[in-house]
Amino acid sequence: MLSLFARIFVVTFCLCHLPITEQQYTPDWASLDSRPLPAWYDESKIGIFIHWGVFSVPSIGSEWMWWQWKGNSPSANIVAFMNKTYPADWTYADFAEQFRAEFYNPDEWADILAASGAKYVVLTSKHHEGFTLWPSKYSFNWNAMDVGPKRDLLGDLANSIRARTNITFGLYHSMFEWFHPLYLEDKQSGFKTQLFPNMKTLPELFEIVQRYKPSVIWSDGDWEAPDTYWNSTQFLAWLYNESPVKDTVVVNDRWGSGVPCHHGGYYTCSDHYNPGHLVTHKWENCFTIDKNSWGFIRTSGVNDYRSIQEILMEIVTTVSTGGNVLINIGPTSYGKIAPIFEERLRQMGSWLKVNGEAIYSSVPWKYQNDTINSNVWYTASKDGQSVYACLLVWPNSTSEISLGAPVSSASTTVSLLGSSGGPLKWRSGGASGGIVIDVSSVKIYSLASDWTWVFKLQNITPKKTTRKFKFHGKQYE
């Protein structure tokens, strides 16, 4: 049973957030899912995820270090490390004092993010540990203003992003917290009580939306309980109808067990989700540059990080099949973006400067992967005038590149983005269609791009197929 104080709080809280005008969207999935996704999100294609928190201090194992240490099935390696390195009475909360962010310069972060070519950023406002990067009044003495950095880390970055870049600012927020007493009490009841969402999760969500006005709410930590426990649809109805970001905000699909990949603004389905085929509902591939962790890990070696070639492969295959990418970095506890993350982001930015027209605001083509060349993935311009063939691997033993999906015409032209050599020679692939591009004149060392090359094809049609699909309301046949 709720205490008298809790009952008063819940009633007061709900009354304070009742819409003051007639709702456009009602708190049910049929209504919420009917909301069109704001166009800026699909056009952006590239986002940066930032995992930062108290877990950045121990920086071992992963951002789940606390659970790996004190959870239901502790990691023997983590337990041994803690026993060897810290006093017997050390607690996870003791790490917060060491989370000082003494070299944190949000202007520097903003400049690095701008150089990456990303169009939006999603910062962890609070991970499963419960520590908030903003001075939340619902997280007393477990936030970045009360302990550790003694500053509003979230607000400082939001201000720098908005002042120095055109990047859209968004926030990740964990619905649950591993060891919060109210959550554990609700869990013990089989989630028949709602102490935690009413006293913690929902107040925090309202707080960050009203204070920081993020255009992305990236929800997580929902999977143990149904959306009815989290009151997810009620929050989303308020977000879409009454919030200060109601016209621009986008949300993902992690709002309760059974909800991912079925409801929400765009689908994430699972971490590192990249199905390799067209998904007609808007989706996002969130993946890490450090292959083993979302947070910064001190023990990672060079082979633990994705190469720029691997990152570009994720971008091309994801955008080709209708998705966005959200590429994760993990800053250090002292507030620096590690050089290897910065290098990858700047490399990506240099590639996008040359090849961005094949990525930003693009749409899927009739074919995503070429019919005979598995190293080629396609995108198209919105007006249908240009098709982009993205080549992941340059052939070593030939001066020709064969494509099976395009059908040429007398006015077909082929050019290579980043090349100053003008249109390339090509010939028809034969009666069955396709084209063969002559690249004998291309000097790879002189190209503006060192990885993943993009051929711009104009005045072509796709090879005939019986496949039909819709993407964002447009019919493809």
From TrEMBL:
The stretch of residues making up the signal peptide is 1-23
**One GO process term, biological-process aspect:** fucose metabolic process
Q: Indicate the segments forming the Alpha-L-fucosidase C-terminal domain, all copies.
A: 368-458
Q: One GO term of the cellular component aspect? A: lysosome
Tell me the protein's name. alpha-L-fucosidase
Q: Which reaction does it catalyse?
A: a neolactoside IV(2)-alpha-Fuc-nLc4Cer(d18:1(4E)) + H2O = a neolactoside nLc4Cer(d18:1(4E)) + L-fucose; a neolactoside IV(2)-alpha-Fuc-nLc4Cer(d18:0) + H2O = a neolactoside nLc4Cer(d18:0) + L-fucose
Quote the function comment for this protein: Alpha-L-fucosidase is responsible for hydrolyzing the alpha-1,6-linked fucose joined to the reducing-end N-acetylglucosamine of the carbohydrate moieties of glycoproteins.
Q: What are its E.C. numbers?
A: 3.2.1.51
**Enzyme superclass (EC):** hydrolase
Keyword annotations: Glycoprotein, Glycosidase, Hydrolase, Signal
What is stated as this protein's family in its record?
Answer: Belongs to the glycosyl hydrolase 29 family.
Naturally occurring in which organism (per UniProt):
Adineta ricciae (Rotifer)
User: What one GO molecular function would you report for this record?
Assistant: alpha-L-fucosidase activity
Record-marked site positions (May be important for catalysis): 286
**Glycoside hydrolase family 29 N-terminal domain span:** 17-357
Q: Which InterPro entries match?
A: FUC_metazoa-typ (IPR016286), Fucosidase_C (IPR031919), GH (IPR017853), Glyco_hydro_29 (IPR000933), Glyco_hydro_29_CS (IPR018526), Glyco_hydro_29_N (IPR057739), Glyco_hydro_b (IPR013780)
Taxon lineage: Eukaryota, Metazoa, Spiralia, Gnathifera, Rotifera
